[in-house]
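Example record

One chain of 77 residues, shown exactly as stored in the release files.
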Amino acid sequence: MEEEWRSRIVVDRMVLAGKPIIKDTRIAVELILELLANGWTVEEILKNYPQLRKEDITAAPKYAINVLREERVHPLT
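Predicted structure tokens for this chain:
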């Protein structure tokens, strides 16, 4: 899987309480994922957030996939 997302997503504990954001913005990866999940197109996101690039938006799901792949699952019982 491409890992170009690593250059587009950063974590800074001083910005949005350390949530992953798009580099050089205060836009959380969580917001982009939510917009995509709610049916927004890349074009709609770009229109509403002109400071983003298409590559920023496509980096968000790639980041989420990476997080889930590395997640450890602990049984509750």
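Notes: The first strand starts at residue 9 and ends at 11.
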